[in-house]
Amino acid sequence: MDNMNTKLLNPLTLAYMGDAVLDQHVREYIVLKLRSKPNRLHQVSKQYVSAKSQAQTLETLIDEGWFTEEELDILKRGRNAKSYTKAKNTDIQTYRKSSAIEAVLGYLYLEHNEERLKELLNKIIEIVNERS
């Protein structure tokens, strides 16, 4: 996908992609780290991929000034996007923040910006690990 098309995608489409990217990264991380039963893996993965966790991680990253201008633009669009699905087990602000970080992940993935994507995924793991 060329740069122009990716930027024009609906932010919730980017978030949909980003959700899958984060989920796969977290699964790989915990499978290799924990080597335990699937039920336990599922419990642990929620620490990283829940909307609440993603919202807290986003706040930390913003406080640290981690994002580029372009990424901040995607974040804002992701956070302001009107979703017609109801947020599960969370309030709308938390849901929007988690959609925002997922939109950036989806954007980086679709742009094939592997280096920056890997940095962000590893940073997310690091932040959650420091919290728990």
TrEMBL record:
What main location does UniProt list?
A: cytoplasm
- SUPFAM superfamilies registered for this protein in UniProt: RNase III domain-like
Q: Where located? A: Cytoplasm
Q: Domain RNase III spans what residues? A: 6-130
- The entry's keywords: Cytoplasm, Endonuclease, Hydrolase, Magnesium, Nuclease, Ribosome biogenesis, RNA-binding, rRNA processing, rRNA-binding
Which cofactors does the annotated protein need, by name?
Mg(2+)
Question: Per its UniProt record, what InterPro entries does this chain match?
Answer: Mini3_fam (IPR008226), RNase_III_dom (IPR000999), RNase_III_sf (IPR036389)
Q: What is stated as this protein's family in its record? A: Belongs to the MrnC RNase family.
Q: Which PANTHER family match?
A: MINI-RIBONUCLEASE 3
Q: List the HAMAP family.
A: RNase_Mini_III
Please identify the protein, giving its name as recorded: Mini-ribonuclease 3
